[in-house]
Amino acid sequence: MIAYTSTSTVTLAEARTRYTSGRGYLAACTLGLPTIETIAAMRADTEAWAGGQACASRYGEVVERVRVGYADLVNVTPHSVAIGSQTSVMAGLVAASIPDGAEVVLPRGDFSSMVFPFLAQAHRGVTVRQVDLADLATSLTANTWLVAFSLVQSATGTLADSDAIRAAARATGTFTLCDTTQATGWMPVDASLFDATICHSYKWLGAPRGVGFFTVAETFAAQLHPINAGWYAGDDLWASCYGPAMALASDARRFDVSPAWPAWVGAEPAIDLFRRLDLAEVATHNVALGDALCDGLDLPRLGQAIISWPDAGGRDLARLTAAGITASGRAGRARVAFHLWNDRDDVDAVLDALRRG
Protein backbone atom coordinates (compact mmCIF):
# COMPACT_ATOMS: atom_id res chain seq x y z
CA MET A 1 0.00 0.00 0.00
CA ILE A 2 1.26 3.48 -0.90
CA ALA A 3 1.53 5.89 2.03
CA TYR A 4 -0.08 9.19 1.05
CA THR A 5 1.63 11.50 3.52
CA SER A 6 3.16 14.81 2.53
CA THR A 7 3.88 18.20 4.06
CA SER A 8 3.82 20.11 0.76
CA THR A 9 0.92 22.42 -0.01
CA VAL A 10 -1.53 21.98 -2.87
CA THR A 11 -3.04 24.92 -4.72
CA LEU A 12 -6.67 25.12 -5.68
CA ALA A 13 -5.72 24.91 -9.35
CA GLU A 14 -3.64 21.78 -8.73
CA ALA A 15 -6.41 20.17 -6.71
CA ARG A 16 -8.88 20.69 -9.54
CA THR A 17 -6.73 18.52 -11.80
CA ARG A 18 -7.11 15.56 -9.39
CA TYR A 19 -10.69 14.86 -10.54
CA THR A 20 -11.66 12.92 -13.65
CA SER A 21 -15.07 14.59 -13.86
CA GLY A 22 -17.22 17.18 -12.17
CA ARG A 23 -18.88 19.29 -14.83
CA GLY A 24 -22.53 19.62 -13.83
CA TYR A 25 -21.98 17.71 -10.58
CA LEU A 26 -23.45 19.91 -7.85
CA ALA A 27 -23.95 17.32 -5.14
CA ALA A 28 -20.92 17.32 -2.85
CA CYS A 29 -23.41 17.85 -0.02
CA THR A 30 -24.86 14.43 -0.88
CA LEU A 31 -21.86 12.46 -2.09
CA GLY A 32 -18.39 13.78 -2.86
CA LEU A 33 -16.26 12.82 -5.84
CA PRO A 34 -13.08 10.73 -5.52
CA THR A 35 -9.72 11.98 -6.73
CA ILE A 36 -7.55 10.07 -9.17
CA GLU A 37 -5.40 9.01 -6.21
CA THR A 38 -8.36 7.62 -4.25
CA ILE A 39 -9.53 5.64 -7.28
CA ALA A 40 -6.02 4.23 -7.83
CA ALA A 41 -5.57 3.34 -4.17
CA MET A 42 -8.83 1.42 -4.02
CA ARG A 43 -8.14 -0.43 -7.26
CA ALA A 44 -4.68 -1.42 -6.04
CA ASP A 45 -6.15 -2.60 -2.74
CA THR A 46 -8.77 -4.72 -4.50
CA GLU A 47 -6.07 -6.33 -6.63
CA ALA A 48 -3.93 -7.02 -3.58
CA TRP A 49 -6.90 -8.56 -1.79
CA ALA A 50 -7.71 -10.73 -4.82
CA GLY A 51 -4.10 -11.87 -4.93
CA GLY A 52 -4.06 -12.89 -1.28
CA GLN A 53 -1.75 -10.02 -0.37
CA ALA A 54 -4.06 -8.03 1.90
CA CYS A 55 -2.75 -7.69 5.44
CA ALA A 56 -4.65 -6.70 8.58
CA SER A 57 -1.67 -5.02 10.22
CA ARG A 58 -0.97 -2.91 7.13
CA TYR A 59 -4.61 -1.83 7.08
CA GLY A 60 -4.11 -0.76 10.67
CA GLU A 61 -1.16 1.39 9.61
CA VAL A 62 -3.35 3.08 7.00
CA VAL A 63 -6.02 3.84 9.61
CA GLU A 64 -3.47 5.44 11.91
CA ARG A 65 -2.05 7.59 9.11
CA VAL A 66 -5.56 8.76 8.28
CA ARG A 67 -6.23 9.49 11.96
CA VAL A 68 -3.09 11.64 12.10
CA GLY A 69 -3.97 13.39 8.84
CA TYR A 70 -7.49 14.19 9.97
CA ALA A 71 -6.21 15.51 13.31
CA ASP A 72 -3.95 17.88 11.41
CA LEU A 73 -6.84 18.93 9.16
CA VAL A 74 -9.09 20.00 12.07
CA ASN A 75 -6.44 21.24 14.52
CA VAL A 76 -6.50 18.56 17.22
CA THR A 77 -4.06 15.90 18.38
CA PRO A 78 -4.34 12.32 17.07
CA HIS A 79 -4.94 11.16 20.65
CA SER A 80 -8.25 13.04 20.68
CA VAL A 81 -9.55 11.43 17.47
CA ALA A 82 -11.71 8.30 17.49
CA ILE A 83 -12.80 6.57 14.31
CA GLY A 84 -16.22 5.36 13.27
CA SER A 85 -18.37 4.69 10.26
CA GLN A 86 -21.70 6.49 10.79
CA THR A 87 -22.69 9.85 12.22
CA SER A 88 -25.66 8.40 14.11
CA VAL A 89 -23.48 5.80 15.84
CA MET A 90 -21.04 8.44 17.05
CA ALA A 91 -23.88 10.73 18.12
CA GLY A 92 -25.47 7.72 19.80
CA LEU A 93 -22.36 7.25 21.93
CA VAL A 94 -22.81 10.77 23.29
CA ALA A 95 -26.58 10.39 23.63
CA ALA A 96 -26.25 7.18 25.65
CA SER A 97 -23.88 8.97 28.04
CA ILE A 98 -26.24 11.83 28.89
CA PRO A 99 -27.27 11.65 32.55
CA ASP A 100 -30.81 10.49 33.26
CA GLY A 101 -33.23 13.40 33.21
CA ALA A 102 -30.78 15.86 31.65
CA GLU A 103 -31.66 18.40 28.95
CA VAL A 104 -30.33 18.56 25.38
CA VAL A 105 -30.94 21.50 23.06
CA LEU A 106 -30.95 20.96 19.28
CA PRO A 107 -31.71 23.19 16.29
CA ARG A 108 -35.07 22.52 14.71
CA GLY A 109 -34.74 20.77 11.32
CA ASP A 110 -31.21 19.44 11.80
CA PHE A 111 -30.22 16.20 10.04
CA SER A 112 -31.87 13.20 11.67
CA SER A 113 -28.58 11.51 12.58
CA MET A 114 -28.02 14.43 14.95
CA VAL A 115 -31.59 14.29 16.26
CA PHE A 116 -32.80 10.69 16.52
CA PRO A 117 -30.03 9.44 18.87
CA PHE A 118 -31.10 12.04 21.45
CA LEU A 119 -34.83 11.53 21.04
CA ALA A 120 -34.17 7.82 21.59
CA GLN A 121 -33.13 8.60 25.18
CA ALA A 122 -36.62 9.70 26.25
CA HIS A 123 -37.09 6.48 28.21
CA ARG A 124 -34.41 7.71 30.63
CA GLY A 125 -36.10 11.04 31.11
CA VAL A 126 -33.71 12.89 28.81
CA THR A 127 -35.46 16.02 27.57
CA VAL A 128 -34.80 17.24 24.03
CA ARG A 129 -35.69 20.85 23.34
CA GLN A 130 -35.61 21.89 19.68
CA VAL A 131 -35.42 25.58 18.77
CA ASP A 132 -34.73 27.63 15.65
CA LEU A 133 -31.05 27.62 14.69
CA ALA A 134 -30.84 31.39 15.11
CA ASP A 135 -32.08 31.03 18.71
CA LEU A 136 -29.77 28.20 19.70
CA ALA A 137 -27.29 30.28 21.72
CA THR A 138 -29.93 32.24 23.61
CA SER A 139 -31.86 29.07 24.42
CA LEU A 140 -29.15 27.52 26.60
CA THR A 141 -29.62 27.59 30.35
CA ALA A 142 -27.82 26.26 33.40
CA ASN A 143 -30.05 23.18 33.08
CA THR A 144 -28.78 22.35 29.57
CA TRP A 145 -26.30 19.48 29.69
CA LEU A 146 -25.55 19.41 25.96
CA VAL A 147 -26.10 21.49 22.85
CA ALA A 148 -25.73 19.47 19.65
CA PHE A 149 -25.86 20.99 16.18
CA SER A 150 -24.50 20.84 12.64
CA LEU A 151 -22.02 23.57 11.77
CA VAL A 152 -23.63 23.75 8.32
CA GLN A 153 -27.26 22.76 7.97
CA SER A 154 -27.81 19.95 5.47
CA ALA A 155 -31.13 21.10 4.03
CA THR A 156 -30.32 24.77 3.60
CA GLY A 157 -26.55 25.23 3.86
CA THR A 158 -27.02 27.77 6.67
CA LEU A 159 -23.95 28.23 8.86
CA ALA A 160 -24.52 28.10 12.59
CA ASP A 161 -23.22 30.98 14.69
CA SER A 162 -20.75 28.73 16.45
CA ASP A 163 -19.00 31.61 18.25
CA ALA A 164 -22.24 32.66 19.94
CA ILE A 165 -23.18 29.06 20.72
CA ARG A 166 -19.81 28.33 22.32
CA ALA A 167 -19.91 31.54 24.34
CA ALA A 168 -23.37 30.69 25.65
CA ALA A 169 -22.26 27.14 26.42
CA ARG A 170 -19.32 28.40 28.45
CA ALA A 171 -21.59 30.73 30.39
CA THR A 172 -24.12 28.00 31.21
CA GLY A 173 -21.71 25.08 31.71
CA THR A 174 -23.13 23.26 28.69
CA PHE A 175 -21.16 20.72 26.67
CA THR A 176 -20.94 21.23 22.89
CA LEU A 177 -21.24 18.59 20.16
CA CYS A 178 -20.82 19.84 16.59
CA ASP A 179 -21.38 17.84 13.41
CA THR A 180 -18.97 19.19 10.79
CA THR A 181 -19.89 16.76 8.00
CA GLN A 182 -21.30 19.52 5.78
CA ALA A 183 -18.39 21.88 6.56
CA THR A 184 -15.09 20.02 6.71
CA GLY A 185 -13.53 20.05 3.26
CA TRP A 186 -14.93 23.32 1.93
CA MET A 187 -14.19 25.69 4.82
CA PRO A 188 -11.69 25.85 7.69
CA VAL A 189 -12.86 23.84 10.70
CA ASP A 190 -11.23 23.93 14.15
CA ALA A 191 -12.51 20.94 16.09
CA SER A 192 -10.55 21.98 19.19
CA LEU A 193 -13.14 24.71 19.83
CA PHE A 194 -15.82 22.16 20.75
CA ASP A 195 -16.09 19.49 23.44
CA ALA A 196 -16.73 16.96 20.65
CA THR A 197 -17.21 16.92 16.90
CA ILE A 198 -18.44 14.37 14.40
CA CYS A 199 -17.51 14.24 10.73
CA HIS A 200 -18.35 11.73 8.02
CA SER A 201 -15.86 12.19 5.18
CA TYR A 202 -17.78 10.91 2.16
CA LYS A 203 -19.20 14.31 1.27
CA TRP A 204 -16.92 17.34 0.96
CA LEU A 205 -13.74 15.34 1.65
CA GLY A 206 -14.48 12.84 -1.12
CA ALA A 207 -13.56 9.74 0.87
CA PRO A 208 -15.45 6.43 0.51
CA ARG A 209 -18.55 6.08 2.67
CA GLY A 210 -17.76 4.40 5.96
CA VAL A 211 -14.96 6.69 7.19
CA GLY A 212 -16.03 8.88 10.09
CA PHE A 213 -14.25 10.78 12.84
CA PHE A 214 -15.14 11.71 16.40
CA THR A 215 -12.96 14.27 18.17
CA VAL A 216 -13.33 14.70 21.89
CA ALA A 217 -11.72 16.85 24.57
CA GLU A 218 -10.38 14.99 27.61
CA THR A 219 -12.80 16.65 30.02
CA PHE A 220 -15.79 15.58 27.93
CA ALA A 221 -14.36 12.13 27.20
CA ALA A 222 -14.45 11.48 30.94
CA GLN A 223 -18.26 11.90 30.78
CA LEU A 224 -18.73 9.32 28.01
CA HIS A 225 -19.28 5.58 28.15
CA PRO A 226 -17.57 3.46 25.45
CA ILE A 227 -20.82 1.68 24.59
CA ASN A 228 -19.49 0.50 21.22
CA ALA A 229 -16.32 -0.97 22.67
CA GLY A 230 -14.94 -3.77 20.54
CA TRP A 231 -11.55 -5.17 19.68
CA TYR A 232 -10.47 -1.98 17.92
CA ALA A 233 -10.95 0.03 21.10
CA GLY A 234 -8.39 -2.10 22.91
CA ASP A 235 -5.25 -0.67 24.44
CA ASP A 236 -3.09 -2.98 22.32
CA LEU A 237 -5.09 -4.22 19.33
CA TRP A 238 -3.42 -7.56 18.96
CA ALA A 239 -2.72 -8.21 22.63
CA SER A 240 -6.17 -7.27 23.91
CA CYS A 241 -8.42 -8.80 21.26
CA TYR A 242 -9.58 -11.70 23.43
CA GLY A 243 -11.46 -11.80 26.75
CA PRO A 244 -12.18 -12.20 29.53
CA ALA A 245 -10.71 -8.88 30.75
CA MET A 246 -11.33 -5.55 29.02
CA ALA A 247 -8.32 -3.31 28.51
CA LEU A 248 -9.42 -0.24 26.58
CA ALA A 249 -7.18 2.50 25.21
CA SER A 250 -6.69 5.42 27.57
CA ASP A 251 -7.18 8.10 24.90
CA ALA A 252 -9.98 8.68 22.37
CA ARG A 253 -9.23 5.32 20.75
CA ARG A 254 -11.38 3.70 23.41
CA PHE A 255 -14.33 5.03 21.41
CA ASP A 256 -13.09 3.51 18.12
CA VAL A 257 -15.36 1.32 16.03
CA SER A 258 -13.66 -1.36 13.95
CA PRO A 259 -12.89 0.16 10.53
CA ALA A 260 -14.08 -1.09 7.15
CA TRP A 261 -10.52 -1.39 5.87
CA PRO A 262 -10.88 -0.81 2.10
CA ALA A 263 -12.72 2.45 2.71
CA TRP A 264 -9.80 3.76 4.74
CA VAL A 265 -7.40 2.94 1.93
CA GLY A 266 -9.44 5.26 -0.28
CA ALA A 267 -9.71 7.87 2.46
CA GLU A 268 -5.97 8.25 2.95
CA PRO A 269 -5.22 10.24 -0.24
CA ALA A 270 -8.48 12.16 0.17
CA ILE A 271 -7.67 13.38 3.68
CA ASP A 272 -4.08 14.06 2.71
CA LEU A 273 -5.21 16.31 -0.15
CA PHE A 274 -7.54 18.44 1.96
CA ARG A 275 -5.14 18.88 4.85
CA ARG A 276 -2.65 20.37 2.37
CA LEU A 277 -5.14 22.76 0.78
CA ASP A 278 -5.77 26.32 1.92
CA LEU A 279 -9.37 25.77 2.97
CA ALA A 280 -9.97 29.50 3.24
CA GLU A 281 -9.18 29.66 -0.48
CA VAL A 282 -11.51 26.73 -1.14
CA ALA A 283 -14.25 28.49 0.80
CA THR A 284 -13.74 31.69 -1.19
CA HIS A 285 -14.02 29.72 -4.44
CA ASN A 286 -17.15 27.84 -3.39
CA VAL A 287 -18.91 30.82 -1.84
CA ALA A 288 -18.24 32.97 -4.90
CA LEU A 289 -20.06 30.42 -7.04
CA GLY A 290 -22.90 30.17 -4.51
CA ASP A 291 -23.28 33.94 -4.40
CA ALA A 292 -23.22 34.12 -8.22
CA LEU A 293 -26.11 31.66 -8.32
CA CYS A 294 -28.00 33.69 -5.73
CA ASP A 295 -27.53 36.77 -7.93
CA GLY A 296 -28.94 34.89 -10.90
CA LEU A 297 -31.92 33.65 -8.89
CA ASP A 298 -32.59 37.08 -7.35
CA LEU A 299 -31.87 35.71 -3.88
CA PRO A 300 -29.89 37.51 -1.17
CA ARG A 301 -26.23 36.50 -1.18
CA LEU A 302 -25.86 33.84 1.51
CA GLY A 303 -22.09 33.31 1.73
CA GLN A 304 -22.63 29.54 1.47
CA ALA A 305 -21.36 26.64 -0.61
CA ILE A 306 -24.82 25.03 -0.46
CA ILE A 307 -27.65 26.98 -2.04
CA SER A 308 -31.26 25.86 -1.74
CA TRP A 309 -34.64 27.37 -2.53
CA PRO A 310 -38.31 26.31 -2.15
CA ASP A 311 -39.27 23.59 -4.62
CA ALA A 312 -42.07 21.64 -2.93
CA GLY A 313 -43.26 19.98 -6.12
CA GLY A 314 -39.75 19.13 -7.31
CA ARG A 315 -40.23 21.05 -10.56
CA ASP A 316 -36.87 22.86 -10.45
CA LEU A 317 -35.02 19.70 -9.48
CA ALA A 318 -36.61 17.93 -12.46
CA ARG A 319 -35.43 20.76 -14.74
CA LEU A 320 -31.88 20.47 -13.45
CA THR A 321 -31.90 16.70 -13.86
CA ALA A 322 -33.27 16.96 -17.40
CA ALA A 323 -30.38 19.29 -18.23
CA GLY A 324 -27.84 16.71 -17.05
CA ILE A 325 -27.09 18.49 -13.78
CA THR A 326 -26.71 16.39 -10.64
CA ALA A 327 -28.44 18.20 -7.80
CA SER A 328 -30.64 17.12 -4.91
CA GLY A 329 -33.90 17.90 -3.15
CA ARG A 330 -34.25 18.12 0.62
CA ALA A 331 -37.06 19.26 2.93
CA GLY A 332 -39.15 20.58 0.04
CA ARG A 333 -36.26 22.52 -1.43
CA ALA A 334 -34.00 22.20 -4.48
CA ARG A 335 -30.38 22.06 -3.39
CA VAL A 336 -27.06 22.52 -5.19
CA ALA A 337 -23.53 22.53 -3.82
CA PHE A 338 -20.36 24.06 -5.28
CA HIS A 339 -16.94 22.54 -4.68
CA LEU A 340 -13.42 22.30 -6.07
CA TRP A 341 -14.38 20.86 -9.46
CA ASN A 342 -17.07 23.46 -10.19
CA ASP A 343 -16.71 26.83 -11.91
CA ARG A 344 -18.83 29.65 -13.29
CA ASP A 345 -19.96 27.46 -16.19
CA ASP A 346 -21.83 25.31 -13.66
CA VAL A 347 -23.61 28.38 -12.31
CA ASP A 348 -24.64 29.36 -15.83
CA ALA A 349 -25.83 25.81 -16.56
CA VAL A 350 -28.14 25.90 -13.53
CA LEU A 351 -29.58 29.25 -14.50
CA ASP A 352 -30.08 28.16 -18.11
CA ALA A 353 -31.84 24.97 -17.02
CA LEU A 354 -34.22 26.84 -14.75
CA ARG A 355 -34.99 29.52 -17.34
CA ARG A 356 -35.77 26.93 -20.02
CA GLY A 357 -38.57 25.56 -17.89
Automatic annotation (TrEMBL):
Q: Give the signal peptide range.
A: none
Record carries keyword Nucleotidyltransferase: no
**UniProt entry keywords in alphabetical sequence:** Aminotransferase, Transferase
The UniProt GO MF terms for this protein read: transaminase activity
Which residue ranges does the record assign to the Aminotransferase class V domain? Answer: 55-298
One Pfam family this sequence matches: Aminotran_5
Q: What's the protein here called?
A: Aminotransferase class V-fold PLP-dependent enzyme
